[in-house]
Specification:
Layout: E1 6-14, E2 20-29, E3 34-38, H1 45-49, E4 60-65, E5 68-69, H2 75-81, E6 82-85, H3 98-108, H4 113-126, H5 142-154, E7 160-164, H6 172-184, E8 188-192, H7 196-202, E9 205-210, E10 213-219, H8 220-225, H9 227-232
Parallel strand pairs: 3-8, 3-9, 6-7, 7-8
Antiparallel strand pairs: 1-2, 1-4, 4-5, 9-10
Helix pairs in contact: 3-4, 3-5, 4-5
């Protein structure tokens, strides 16, 4: 299934003010992989993700989705393949009601009304927000907006799911629900997040970005065991891998 492949080659992006967001990044992600992009604030995680369906264009290097490079000519097909959940839900919710937001993508695919409604209802049900269907986005809490933003992407049934901080603003129930949904999604997942326990639950592979450069790429368990690497990149082990300070107190010198 080559159409599920994501490949970056020597990707560099320089912002208009001259700041380098990504520097010479090369990554290949194949069908069915669940990959975490981790790093401290400002490392370049969001910048990298925004290249995967043409919201940003490389200063140099290339992006390939499936069999074709990402270009002005292929961007429409790429955006059908790559579903993006943005870091800020307000960037994704712009219609009068949540129903309209979730239906927007399927309607733009040219799907018939009946199929659009099926997709909308399925996405809202999976996110547990059917009761918000007729609400305007501005009446929602931060967590409800996050769920609605994810539903807008699920309704598109993408082959590649890209998510930027998907668990931010979710309560514990919503977070568990999100993890369950993502475990059911059997296609390619690329998730940028500070929630390293979510990474440990979902992603077999992790990529660390630090100062715009890829510092590590490998099995998540191996990366989380490398304390020197994590410290160098401003990261800590997931809480689930840390010793309890009460049960295992640090010995006094």
């Amino acid at each position: 299934m080559s159409h599920h492949i994501v490949e970056l080659k020597n990707l560099t992006y320089v912002y208009p003010d001259g700041t380098t967001g990504i520097c010479d990044a090369s990554v290949r992600i194949t069908h069915g992989e669940s990959v975490a992009i981790i790093g401290p604030n400002g490392a370049g995680k969001s910048t990298l993700l925004l290249h995967l369906n043409g919201f940003l264009w490389p200063s140099s290097g290339s992006v390939r989705i499936g069999d074709a490079p990402l270009t002005k000519e292929t961007i429409r097909d790429v955006r059908r393949t790559v579903g993006m959940v943005f870091q800020d839900p307000d960037d994704q919710l712009f219609m009068p009601t949540i129903h309209d937001d979730v239906a927007f993508g399927p309607y733009n695919l040219g799907l018939p009304n009946e199929e659009v409604e099926e997709r909308v209802n399925s996405a809202l049900s999976r996110m547990g927000i059917m009761h918000l269907k007729d609400k305007p986005p501005y009446r929602l809490s931060a967590g409800e907006k996050r769920r609605a933003a994810i539903a807008t992407v699920l309704s598109m049934m993408p082959d590649i799911l890209v998510m930027d901080e998907p668990s931010t603003g979710l309560d514990p129930f919503g977070r568990r629900q999100l993890i369950g949904i993502l475990k059911e999604f059997t296609h390619t997942k690329i998730i940028a997040t500070h929630d390293l326990d979510l990474v440990a639950d979902l992603c077999e592979r992790a990529i660390i970005i630090h100062d715009g450069r890829i510092k590590a790429d490998g099995p998540t368990a191996d990366i989380f065991r490398d304390e020197a690497l994590l410290h160098e990149c401003g990261l800590e082990k997931p809480f689930s891998m840390q010793s309890c300070p009460i049960c295992s107190p640090v010995p006094k010198p």
